[in-house]
């Protein structure tokens, strides 16, 4: 197992390299560069850009150099912890992100945790009580969550939260707490705002998890070993959790790698609509204004999370299913 | 005849059944010959038919898909017909009785007044009865570019209005737009979903079944693809799409490419499931029979997690119907004059709408209905394919 | 970074300069008020803190509400033949940190910045040059400086009154610590390292940004000075204790103690403003939000008013006179075609459908609020007259039509115009949809396509775009003393003749000089204006240019004087309920002096 | 409650432990219903063994499951099952009337009633270790500490014949051979010392020596803990050795019931008589046919996708040319688990050890051996279902020789067509989501034999030959009984008419009458079409009936090989002798002699010439003539062995 893990970690290096190339291409692909879009944006409101400063930035960040050199500079910088410079914020990327990162992590983890906490019992319920009113009701509820586009859902929730509970519109906290250190009031304010994005981002994921869990469970419930377990006198719940549920987790584990990135990218639009202080809006903005080092670092960070996630998923899969662990390589 | 069982605790007698015995008699399984002859597909169909909700869903979807052919006829107005005098008209209710008299379906003529302080258009019903007409002459249209026509299923009274679901900011009938929007929404994403499913199952299947180097390479590719979030991809792809393409073509193109990129999640699920399943004896049996890889994957392994596939497919439907909304958000999606449910919803994405013109959110309803229908259909298919049912 | 200068300066007691500028509020029809209070404002991104110096509008010379230039930071100024400009500073005027504001601050900019090749590679900024010649700079005494040219520079004052003027002065006491001439190398190296920049010129630039006030330490003359270092989600601006204006009662302005700018996504700002989360909101809310905002007046203590936008046209079609397509170009060059297009548009329908009928149907021209307004400019070919339009087109030789009734071009193609837009405003597509219908009636089909802004610009400059949609004249309320350059090909921003504009902008190095007689004529008139020393002469030139511009219908304006909602707290006093809303020349709120706004009791 | 379940016999009034009264179970399915059990009554006395015998598919397993109330939800159940727990106080309870999966019934399941499922292969979850799954029952029903539980499990695993119980504890089910899994199953059922054990074919996958041990174990437990047993089996030999009362069922109805003496000595019902007559004997003549209950004529060429071999000289005697030649094949499995991070040295199991033999064209080679000795592994290697570590396998088919272990493309294709296999585990070798029609027809489809119509004909002919209804064609495998599934597997293997058919326990789940029917079918096909069989079985009588030659395997090696008469009548190797001694006879007068069977706890040391003395290379095959080889020390002279053997036989006579 250790050998396998070490080997898998080794394989991550070329993968990350490949990803970095792809990320770089993606950021470079749209025509023009940050400076051009910056000038245009200023012009759109009738302002003049500080052309001279822009010229200097251009030269400093090697925009006169060929693309491969710029790529090497970028990757090389990242290796020594220099994530480049955000043109938009005129600050090193590492200084720009600030609070956003942990708020993103907070939103993502609360969402993931809630998704699981809700999806598992409901999935099990739906599978064991197939076609009961509960099954139908929960299915309906979840699917509506999937069917309403996130941005509309966000607007509606936000609007009514404001109308009924007086929650300030959007954001992760009341804005008066923005630059303040953590306090109970601030924490409370975060809680008060957190549920909206979590519900919006979480519903679709929860519903699809419930549906897939249900489908997988239904397949497993018929297996002979379930009967064996029942014959041992186990509690039906115990039977379910220990055998079929574990068996049907396969799909779930194989997906771990993409959970975080998909939550984060699924949250982007919501975050923009709700104006959350997370990384999503910043990433989108950076992409649109071609603030390439900022966007690139974000993307690499996400990619890194994914790669780690896939690693975890692979290892978990092997740990979890002895057939894969012990027979996977058996020559036929 | 002696009783079969003695009293509790008593010794057992030698009991012999006296019923007639014919070793050649057929087994007691009573079944119709149609059943015996039926192929597996037919058996599934029979079983599917028993699932009421699935059947209804299937029929509903069939109707939906059929109706998009004759939208021109079904919609009371054309897609772009504007009624400048009825901007943001709320839904009109259809009445049958006027002052106690039966008139048949009709609406009251509306009176619009612009409130100059709030700049809000205030509509009120007048007492003028405007009976609806059926199979009537209305807006001209060119049916599929084949012939001109002007028949509609229902139209407003001559010179009147009929906005069952209200109108939007240019006074366009929301109902008609929803009907026209179905055309794009129900069809366009199928391409992407098909692509991603075929790729996901084939590539994931091969990787899971073969393992080894092939799996290693596929896994790394998946890893790379998964680690790029979709929004930057959309942006980058949209940037390189030829400008000369129409928005529809661009959207098609991007859906297709995303389909090409979207198979990864499914492929990983397929792969890991196959990792387990391929150790089953029946796979070995098939191998020993000489079955090809494709056959083993297609006939033995994939059916083994059909439930998962069906669930995933039905869950991908919302993505395909609403996928464009994300794009629109980034300014890349479909645009007028093309209309889809996503476009309609994107147009409604302001607080103004929610607060003042909530009827513009009506396109959510067909989306929900279609998604529910697909899911119930999926349930039915799953059950039909489930041998244990 | 605290320096000795700072420390010394900060001990100066706060208060206005001895020779403060007295604003007679009563005379303006406003009421004098009291200091205090916090105003929240929502911005769509960190970048938007640049609105503060625009709204603050502390300029050497600034406009009043009628666009008369008045000394503001200056105590007074003298102009001779538009050539020699003498500026007198106020006595006891101090930067926000308490350091004195003197001629030294002008000298620092002129000598240590403009003339420093490392800081300003190009030397003195182009705006300050007349026919390539830079002015002479003289310090007459501690509080008097003079700029003089050999030829008239009628633009100079207007430039200084603009929303973002060319900076002639900097807080030299503060800035010197970043200049190698005044700072020793070790210390400078330390500062460079501390601020994570590469060299001293970046450091100087970084610390001295005025357009976007990102450096809370940088002393300023504006009514509010920044207190937050980016990146942040909330920016705080506090009143400048040395601000130079006082009200008639001697109370120092600004009244409002603190501005809090909260970053929010642009789409959310209307909703937030409507729920009372902003005391003063002008940006990022749109006409379409008005009804919603107005309805929130009932629930929250806010007032929603409508101001008037001053662009020459809120939305205008721009045929690209420099497009690559020969056939189209030839058509566009024919004034009959442009006029036909303009006549074919039913402006009143558009006004009614999209602007509630309360904008003004007009050609792309100046507004009645301008002294240069004449009805014939606004009405030039702006009536709905499809017959004439059709006749004009037939005359042009576009009389062949296909089975759908679309005209055929000379090379047999169908007259099919793709209008490109930068896709920014939601009403754009609505207007275009209506326009498409209108033009269809004269046998021209229209398709619209939205692209990213850079791409949009690039395609226009490259001549790939046949027609685009943009807004009309930026400054729809000019005075004769403001440059009429928008009417002549002077910039590649002008989407209807980008190539000619580029030629002018680059001094002939790039693009082509206009070869269309009318465009040439406009350019000549502009040059004439430049040379003119008298206002009356300039006015005449303006009228000539306006007449040509509107008669030639280079741009097809649709409506102007569109309305802009502004939201303010109902406690906020002195905020005009009507006003003109524009960047240039009004600097948004700037000319209306937000420093005179104050919080009273809830109305 | 007494945790051991032990109760003094004298105190309790001896009520029936379990009474099933008028039980009926039916399964509805689309287009009909299957009545698995009809109006069925049965009782089990405390401490007694009731055997349930009957034809395959007659509802025995369904009955077993029903009385525990774990039959699948689709079943419709009528009647009642009264359980009178000797350790309980409240008298008889109707198990079927209790709430499903309720507390009450759960405290009985696994604790008071244990169940050994017929299909040990699929009855374990593949994700959990054997130990874990056994332990669970203990955890639920007892309050033992983890250490005590572990101890008890290890003890039980030892009792059911595992040489290394500690190792098995941590193994996964798929790492065990069929027989080992069955023993694990037995251990699991017994771990709580139930008052009633439902043993559904508990010994089918076991070789006779282990079977004998298990029988002994069950007998011991029965007397020690007063355990009653419902024994469902086909093996009348086992019945004769274990049962007190016998119930004979046929198609869900009781045909005959009575004490074991009555049943064996005085069978009345024609069905029972037929059953008795169908049992294969050791003293059958080579030409003698088994007498199944119903004889079904076989037309091989119609039935299989194969032409009648025209120039088949004398199908009766094996032709001399070699069809399959196996040389020095070895295979070992590595347990990669040792240590969480795989740092420990991997542990190797030598499943097949240097095996060489030939299979002649047209002959049928029997392969017998201890459970877990590598038979299945070997047969999978021959099929190239597993790769061998070393050695070679050459297949001399009609299209020329093929190197089995390295065949590619066309060669492999030929191989796949010419060699077929019947899997030991019928359940898992049938695709759960294919109908029987598709399953049997699949090889035909793969190899594109005939058109759709011909395929249908073949499939239908095969189905009736294996004694299944036509209606079975549209059903899915899970709805069949163990024996029915096994027959489906046989039909599938036969469909192509292979040259070589490897049968891994093909008839273990079949009652004697169906078994006779199938064996006859195989024999007929062999005669008619010249098929060749490798026949793996634990049932020596069956081997005796089917095989021309027999190979005996022990611990991965072939210890003895020779013509069937020689092996059966004068075996040389002590293991073979032991095997023969452990055969249970369906004769009340020939009870098993447990003394000769010995204990399974320790791998026995053979007598001097046969033991490897821990040096495996010191053993070699000694040729005893007439194709009789035996594995013995290299130093030993073959003649000595023979002489020894002859003298021993004389001594016995
Ligand atoms: N889940 C089910 N659905 C439908 N039919 C079933 C199901 N389980 C069993 N049967 C049918 O019930 C009958 C009895 O099956 P059962 O398994 O009890 O037979 P059995 O006596 O144990 O046979 P064998 O000796 O072959 O194991 C068979 O005809 C079988 O096809
Ligand atoms: N995948 C595997 N991993 C590890 N060990 C295995 C594996 N498969 C089989 N073995 C081991 O190989 C040995 C031989 O197994 P095999 O299945 O060939 O026995 P068998 O002779 O068929 O026994 P039975 O008669 O009980 O079916 C057993 O000890 C078993 O534990
Ligand atoms: Mg059975
Ligand atoms: Mg085996």
Give a structural overview:
The complex is a heterotetramer of chains A (332), B (389), C (603) and D (653). With 332 residues, chain A is mostly helical. Chain A folds into two domains: 2-92, no CATH class; 98-320, MetI-like (MetI-like fold, Orthogonal Bundle). Chain A is 77% helix and 1% strand. In chain A, α7 (133-147) crosses α9 and α9 (184-220) crosses α11 (236-254). Mean pLDDT of chain A is 82; it is low at 328-332. Chain B has 389 residues and is of the alpha+beta class. Chain B has a domain at 176-384: MetI-like fold (Orthogonal Bundle). Chain B is extended. The mean pLDDT of chain B is 84. Chain C is of the alpha+beta class and 603 residues long. In chain C, strands 16-20-15-19-17-18 form a six-stranded mixed beta sheet, sandwiched between helices. In chain C, strands 2-12-10-9 form a four-stranded mixed beta sheet. In chain C, a hairpin with a 7-residue loop joins β9 and β10 (234-239). In chain C, α8 (266-274) packs parallel to α9, α11 runs antiparallel to α14 (386-396) and α18 runs antiparallel to α19. Chain D has 653 residues and is of the alpha/beta class. Among the domains of chain D are: 14-112 and 195-279, Rossmann fold (3-Layer(aba) Sandwich); 124-191, no CATH class. In chain D, β9 and β10 (253-259) form a beta hairpin. In chain D, α4 (146-159) crosses α6 (178-190). The longest helix of chain D has 18 residues, at 208-225. Chain D is globular, with a radius of gyration of 25 Å. The model of chain D is unreliable at 1-12, 310-319 and 338-343 (pLDDT under 50). Chains in contact: A-B, A-C, A-D, B-C, B-D. The A-D interface holds A 1-5, 222-225, 227-236, 238, 242-243, 246-247, 320-323, 325-327, 330-332 and D 65, 68, 70, 72, 101, 105-111, 115, 117, 119, 122-129, 133, 136-137, 140-141, 172, 174-175, 188, 335-337, 340-343, 384-387, 427, 478. The complex binds adenosine-5'-triphosphate (2 copies) and magnesium ion (2 copies). One magnesium ion (MG) is lined by residues 60-61, 118, 200, 481-482 of chain D.
């Amino acid at each position: 197992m250790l050998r396998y893990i070490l080997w898998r970690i080794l394989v991550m290096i070329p993968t990350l390299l490949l990803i970095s190339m792809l990320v770089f291409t993606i950021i470079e692909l749209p025509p023009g560069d940050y400076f051009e879009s910056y000038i245009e944006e200023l012009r759109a409101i009738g302002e003049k850009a500080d052309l001279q400063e822009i010229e200097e930035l251009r030269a400093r960040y090697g925009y006169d150099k060929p693309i491969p050199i710029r790529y090497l500079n970028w990757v090389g910088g990242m290796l020594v912890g220099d994530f480049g410079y955000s043109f938009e914020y005129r600050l090193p990327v590492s200084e720009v992100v600030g609070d956003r990162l942990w708020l993103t992590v907070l939103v993502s983890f609360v969402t993931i945790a809630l998704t699981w906490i809700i999806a598992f019992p409901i999935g099990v319920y739906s599978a064991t009580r197939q076609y009961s009113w509960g099954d139908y009701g929960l299915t309906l509820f979840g699917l509506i969550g999937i069917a309403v586009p996130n941005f509309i859902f966000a607007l509606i929730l936000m609007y009514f939260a404001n109308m009924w509970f007086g929650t300030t519109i959007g954001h992760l906290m009341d804005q008066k707490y923005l630059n303040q250190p953590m306090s109970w009031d601030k924490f409370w304010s975060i809680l008060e705002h957190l549920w909206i994005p979590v519900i919006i981002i979480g519903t679709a994921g929860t519903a699809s998890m419930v549906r897939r869990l249900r489908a997988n469970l239904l397949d497993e419930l018929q297996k002979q070993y379930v009967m064996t377990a029942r014959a041992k006198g186990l509690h039906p719940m115990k039977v379910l959790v220990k055998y079929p549920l574990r068996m049907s987790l396969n799909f779930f584990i194989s997906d771990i790698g993409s959970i975080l990135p998909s939550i984060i990218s699924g949250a982007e639009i919501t975050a923009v609509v709700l104006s959350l202080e997370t990384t999503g809006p910043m990433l989108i903005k950076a992409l649109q204004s071609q603030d390439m080092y900022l966007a690139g670092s974000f993307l690499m960070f996400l990619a890194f999370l994914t790669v780690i996630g896939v690693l975890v998923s692979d290892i978990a899969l092997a740990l979890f299913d002895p057939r894969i662990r012990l027979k996977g390589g058996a020559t036929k | 005849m002696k009783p079969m069982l003695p009293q509790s605790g008593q010794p057992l007698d030698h009991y012999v059944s006296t019923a007639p015995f014919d070793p050649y008699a057929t087994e007691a399984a009573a079944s119709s010959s149609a059943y015996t002859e039926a192929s597996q597909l037919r058996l599934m169909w029979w079983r599917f038919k028993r699932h009421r909700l699935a059947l209804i869903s299937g029929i509903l979807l069939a109707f939906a898909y059929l109706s998009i052919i004759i939208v021109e006829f079904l919609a009371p107005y054309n897609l772009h017909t504007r009624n400048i005098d009825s901007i943001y008209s709320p839904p009109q209710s259809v009445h049958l009785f006027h002052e106690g008299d039966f008139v048949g379906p009709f609406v009251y003529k509306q009176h619009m007044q612009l409130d100059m302080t709030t700049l809000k258009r205030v509509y009120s019903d007048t007492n003028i009865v405007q009976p609806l007409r059926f199979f009537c002459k209305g807006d001209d249209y060119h049916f599929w570019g084949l012939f001109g026509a002007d028949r509609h299923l229902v139209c407003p009274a001559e010179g009147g209005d009929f906005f069952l679901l209200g109108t939007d900011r240019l006074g366009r009938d929301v109902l008609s737009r929803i009907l026209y929007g179905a055309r794009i929404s129900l069809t366009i994403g199928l391409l992407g979903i098909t692509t991603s499913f075929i790729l996901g199952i084939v590539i994931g299947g091969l990787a899971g079944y073969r393992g080894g180097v092939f799996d290693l390479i596929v896994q790394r590719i998946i890893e790379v693809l998964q680690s790029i979030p979709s929004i930057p991809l959309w942006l980058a792809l949209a940037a390189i799409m030829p400008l000369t393409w129409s928005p529809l073509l661009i959207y098609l193109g991007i859906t297709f490419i995303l389909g090409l990129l979207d198979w990864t999640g499914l492929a990983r699920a397929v792969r890991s499931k196959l990792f387990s399943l391929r150790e089953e004896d029946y796979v070995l049996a098939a191998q020993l029979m000489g079955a090809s890889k494709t056959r083993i994957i297609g006939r033995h392994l994939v059916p083994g997690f059909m439930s998962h596939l069906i669930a995933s497919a039905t869950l991908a439907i919302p993505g395909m119907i609403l996928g464009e909304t994300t794009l629109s958000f980034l300014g890349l999606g479909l645009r007028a004059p093309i209309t889809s449910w996503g476009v309609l919803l994107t147009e409604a994405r302001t607080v103004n709408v929610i607060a003042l013109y909530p009827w513009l959110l009506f396109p959510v309803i067909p989306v929900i209905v279609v998604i529910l229908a697909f899911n119930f259909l999926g349930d039915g298919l799953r059950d039909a394919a489930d041998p244990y049912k | 970074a605290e320096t000795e200068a700072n420390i010394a300066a900060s001990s100066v007691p706060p208060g206005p300069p001895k020779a403060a500028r007295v604003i007679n509020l009563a005379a303006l029809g406003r009421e004098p008020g009291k200091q205090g209070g916090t105003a929240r404002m929502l911005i769509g991104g960190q970048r938007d803190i640049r609105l503060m110096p625009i709204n603050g509008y502390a300029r050497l010379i600034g406009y009043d509400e009628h666009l008369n230039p008045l000394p503001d930071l200056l105590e007074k100024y003298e102009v001779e033949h538009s050539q020699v400009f003498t500026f007198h500073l106020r006595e006891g005027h101090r930067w926000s940190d308490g350091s004195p504001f003197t001629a030294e601050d002008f000298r620092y900019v002129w000598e240590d910045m403009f003339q420093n090749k490392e800081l300003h590679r190009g030397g003195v900024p182009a705006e300050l040059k007349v026919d390539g010649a830079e002015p002479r700079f003289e310090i007459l005494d501690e509080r008097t400086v003079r700029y003089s040219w050999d030829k008239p520079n009628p633009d100079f004052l207007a430039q200084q009154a603009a929303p973002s003027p060319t900076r002639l002065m900097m807080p030299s006491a503060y800035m010197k610590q970043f200049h190698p001439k005044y700072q020793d190398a070790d210390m400078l190296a330390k500062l460079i390292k501390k601020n994570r920049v590469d060299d001293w010129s970046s450091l100087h630039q970084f610390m001295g940004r005025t357009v976007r006030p990102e450096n809370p330490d940088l002393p300023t003359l504006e009514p509010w000075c920044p207190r937050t270092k980016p990146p942040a989600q909330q920016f705080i601006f506090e009143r400048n204790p040395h601000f130079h204006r006082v009200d008639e009662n001697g109370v120092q302005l600004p009244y409002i103690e603190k501005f809090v700018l909260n970053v929010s996504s642009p789409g959310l700002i209307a909703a937030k403003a409507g729920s009372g989360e902003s005391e003063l909101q002008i940006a990022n809310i749109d006409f379409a939000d008005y009804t919603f905002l107005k309805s929130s007046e009932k629930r929250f203590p806010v007032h929603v008013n409508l101001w008037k936008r001053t662009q020459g046209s809120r939305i205008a079609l721009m045929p690209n006179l420099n497009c690559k397509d020969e056939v189209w170009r030839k058509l566009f060059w024919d004034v009959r075609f442009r006029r036909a297009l303009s006549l074919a548009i039913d402006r009143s329908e558009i006004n009614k459908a999209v602007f509630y009928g309360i904008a003004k149907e007009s050609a792309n021209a100046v507004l009645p609020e301008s002294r240069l307004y004449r009805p014939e400019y606004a009405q030039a070919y702006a009536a709905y007259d499809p017959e004439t339009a059709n006749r004009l087109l037939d005359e042009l030789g576009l009389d062949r039509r296909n089975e759908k009734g679309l005209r055929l071009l000379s090379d047999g193609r169908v007259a099919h115009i793709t209008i490109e837009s930068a896709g920014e405003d939601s009403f754009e597509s609505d207007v275009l949809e209506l326009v498409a219908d209108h033009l269809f009636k004269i046998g021209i089909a229209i398709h619209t396509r939205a692209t990213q802004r850079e791409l949009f610009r690039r395609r226009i400059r490259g001549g790939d775009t046949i027609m685009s949609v943009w807004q009309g004249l930026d400054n729809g309320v000019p005075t004769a003393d403001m440059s009429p350059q928008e009417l002549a090909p002077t910039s590649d921003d002008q989407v209807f003749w980008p190539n000619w504009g580029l030629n002018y902008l680059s001094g002939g190095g790039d693009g082509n000089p206009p070869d269309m007689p009318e465009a040439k004529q406009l350019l000549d008139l502009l040059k004439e204006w430049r040379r003119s020393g008298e206002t009356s002469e300039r006015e005449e030139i303006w009228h000539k240019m306006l007449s040509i511009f509107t008669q030639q219908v280079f741009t097809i304006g649709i409506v102007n004087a569109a309305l802009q909602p502004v939201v303010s707290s109902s406690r906020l006093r002195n905020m005009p309920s009507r006003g003109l809303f524009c960047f240039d020349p009004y600097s948004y709120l700037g000319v209306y002096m937000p420093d005179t706004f104050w919080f009273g009791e809830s109305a | 409650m007494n945790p051991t379940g032990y109760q003094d016999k004298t105190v309790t009034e001896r009520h029936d432990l379990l009474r099933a009264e008028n039980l009926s179970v039916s399964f509805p399915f689309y287009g009909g219903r299957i009545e698995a059990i009809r109006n069925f009554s049965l009782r089990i006395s405390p401490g007694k063994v009731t055997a349930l015998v009957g034809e395959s598919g007659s509802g025995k397993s369904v009955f077993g499951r029903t009385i525990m109330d774990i039959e699948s939800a689709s079943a419709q159940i009528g009647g009642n099952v009264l359980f009178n727990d000797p350790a309980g106080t409240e008298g008889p309870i109707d198990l079927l009337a209790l709430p499903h999966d309720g507390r009450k019934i759960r405290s009985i399941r696994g604790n008071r009633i244990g169940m050994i499922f017929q299909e040990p292969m699929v009855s374990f979850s593949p994700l959990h270790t054997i130990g874990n799954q056994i332990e669970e029952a203990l955890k639920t029903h007892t309050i033992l500490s983890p250490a005590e539980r572990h101890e008890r499990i290890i003890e039980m695993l030892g009792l059911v014949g595992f040489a290394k119980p500690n190792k098995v504890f941590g193994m996964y089910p798929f790492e065990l051979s069929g027989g080992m899994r069955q023993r694990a199953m037995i251990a699991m059922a017994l771990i709580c010392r139930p008052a009633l054990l439902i043993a559904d074919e508990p010994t089918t996958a076991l070789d006779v020596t282990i079977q004998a041990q298990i029988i002994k174990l069950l007998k011991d437990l029965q007397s020690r803990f007063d355990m009653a047993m419902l024994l469902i089996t086909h093996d009348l030999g086992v019945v004769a050795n274990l049962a007190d009362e016998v119930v004979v069922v046929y198609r869900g109805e009781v045909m005959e019931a009575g004490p074991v003496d009555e049943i064996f000595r005085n069978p009345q019902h024609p069905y029972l008589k037929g059953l008795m007559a169908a049992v294969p004997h050791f003293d059958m003549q080579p030409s003698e046919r088994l007498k199944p209950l119903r004889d079904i004529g076989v037309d091989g060429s119609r039935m299989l996708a194969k032409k009648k071999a025209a120039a088949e000289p004398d199908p009766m005697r094996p032709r001399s040319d070699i069809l399959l030649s196996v040389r020095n094949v070895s295979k070992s499995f590595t347990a990669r688990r040792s240590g969480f991070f795989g740092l420990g040295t991997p542990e190797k199991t030598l499943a097949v050890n240097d095996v060489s033999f030939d299979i002649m064209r047209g002959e049928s080679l029997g392969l017998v051996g201890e459970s877990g000795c590598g038979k299945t592994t070997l047969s999978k290697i021959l099929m190239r279902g597993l790769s061998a570590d070393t050695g070679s396998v050459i297949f001399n088919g009609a299209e020329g020789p093929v190197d089995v272990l390295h065949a590619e493309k066309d060669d492999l294709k030929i191989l796949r067509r010419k060699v077929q296999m019947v899997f030991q585990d019928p359940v898992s070798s049938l695709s759960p989501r294919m109908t029987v029609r598709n399953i049997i027809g699949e090889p035909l489809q793969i190899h594109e034999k005939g058109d759709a119509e011909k395929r249908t004909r073949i499939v239908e002919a095969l189905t009736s030959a294996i004694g299944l209804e036509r209606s079975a064609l549209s059903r899915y495998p899970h709805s069949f009984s163990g024996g029915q599934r096994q027959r489906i597997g046989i039909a599938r293997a036969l469909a192509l008419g292979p040259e070589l058919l490897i049968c891994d326990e093909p008839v273990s789940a079949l009652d004697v009458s169906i078994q006779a029917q199938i064996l006859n079918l195989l024999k007929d096909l062999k005669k008619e079409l010249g098929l060749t069989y490798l026949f793996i079985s634990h049932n020596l009588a069956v081997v005796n009936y089917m095989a021309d030659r027999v190979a005996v395997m022990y611990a991965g090696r072939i210890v003895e090989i020779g013509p069937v008469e020689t092996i059966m009548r004068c075996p040389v190797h002590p293991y073979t002798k032991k095997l023969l001694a452990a055969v249970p006879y369906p004769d009340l007068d020939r009870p098993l002699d447990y003394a000769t069977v010995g204990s399974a706890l320790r791998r026995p040391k053979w007598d001097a010439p046969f033991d490897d003395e821990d040096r495996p290379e010191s053993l070699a095959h000694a040729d005893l003539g007439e194709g009789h080889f035996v594995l013995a020390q290299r130093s030993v002279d073959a003649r000595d062995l023979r002489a020894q053997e002859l003298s021993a036989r004389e001594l016995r006579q």
